[in-house]
Write a structure and sequence with these properties.
four-stranded antiparallel β-sheet; single chain; Glucose Permease (Domain IIA); six-stranded antiparallel β-sheet; Immunoglobulin-like
Amino acid sequence: MHARHALRAALVAVVLVTSASAAHAQVCYRLPFTHVGDPWGCTSACGRTSPHRGTDFPQPSGTPVPAVADGVVRLVTTSSCLGNVVVVAHADGMFSGYCHLSAVSVGAGANVSSGQTIGNVGSTGTCTTGPHLHLTMSDHESGYWTGSTVDGYAYITSHTTCNRAPRGYLDTAACTGIGGWAQDQDTPDAPIDVHVYFDGPAGSPDGHGYPTHATISRPDLCTAIGSCEHGFHMTVPPQYFDDTDHAVYAYRIDAMGGANPLLGDSPRTLHCAPALFDSATSASIPAEMIPSDGGVAHGDGGPVIPVYRVTSGCGCRVAATAPGASSLGACSAVAAAALLRRRRRSRPAPSEAATRASRPSPAGTRRAPCTRRRPGAQA
């Protein structure tokens, strides 16, 4: 089997991520205070005629009220019963409501971090007998006042530890390679996988994915994220050297099976001119580096070998091989055909002898099969 066919079969056999993210991300919660007054669901024992919709945390007036988790402020309002209210939306689809506040420190639309002060304990509104935080947890924004709620204390204490999403960045999407970094914050020193998709996001019918690993040591990451070996670099597959724009999506893969978000600055656009390829490394050799006679290509300070060259009779041949090298794989058919067409347009018409040589053999005869010749072999 030719090298290009083997590579293609291996890639097809790889099962990649088919979903970019989970329906809801996991969120790490924290209790605003430890002492609970009237619990959620309490009725007659708390002097109520209907179940308590929230959890009360008695605190001195003016005590800073922390956000119970990261989120976005969705509502800042005043209720005749609950006084000053702030509602924060969280990434797991839940909404935390903070009621009876004496002061509010945030505005609607603001991003807040877990523990950040969103207001101060108070006793505003008519439905209160003293300063306390009335906290509600619900799956809808208006849950602080209407609809169903859940036991805020139980929900928070069951979500104090969680799986944080991996982080990372797609630094480059160039013909010389796709590269960047990725790190799982829950296992910061362990390498993680990165899945790179061309022409469409994960899960789309147009997306074609390739796995790689973030294991390369990068000194610039040591201080920035506290660990060094999280860089990745992958060779652009030969079929994308076709003078066409290709969207590149890169995903950091969560080691614990959580959401797999896109890397920062992803997607990027890749556009590569036709090229030939090094049989030993699969690295691309730009067309402009291939001499017009199809001989050995030279890079910075020396030859780039082994090198494929294009011939009208046999397609891709090895033009030169480094000492000790024995790889004789096949080059990209797409790249080879494109380069061959370009050379044909720039060359004079073939001689009569060349024309006769390229004609089909007479009926009933067979031409010798097209074979690769090692460097130095006579034509």
